[in-house]
Amino acid sequence: MPVQKDIAEMLRKVVKQGFTVTNHRTGSHLRVTAPDGQWVTVAGTPRGPRSVMEVRSKLRRIGAQL
pLDDT tens digits, residue range 13-63? Predict the structure, then answer.
């Protein structure tokens, strides 16, 4: 499952903050879980710059510092 470079960098940052990243049921999506139990599903293969901004927004909603 290829993950765009920008998304991969964001995911590395949130993992360092204590978040967990796992494969979701579907092959191209990832589930990011915050230390307090909140979670979001993000696309592992975003389709453009807007998708990257949406992933950043979702991660911030559950408490990630990006």
Answer: 999 999 999 987 767 789 999 999 999 998 877 777 888 889 999 999 999
Pair of tokens at residue 48: 């453009």
The structure's pTM equals 0.85
- Other beta carbons less than 10 A from residue 37's beta carbon: 7
Nearest to 60 by CA among 43, 45, 38: 38
**How would you classify the pairing of strands 39-43 and 29-33?**
antiparallel
**How many Å apart are CA 27 and CA 17, to the nearest integer?**
25
Strands (E), the chain: 20-23, 29-33, 39-43
Q: Pick the closest to residue 11 from 30, 36, 26 (CA basis).
A: 30
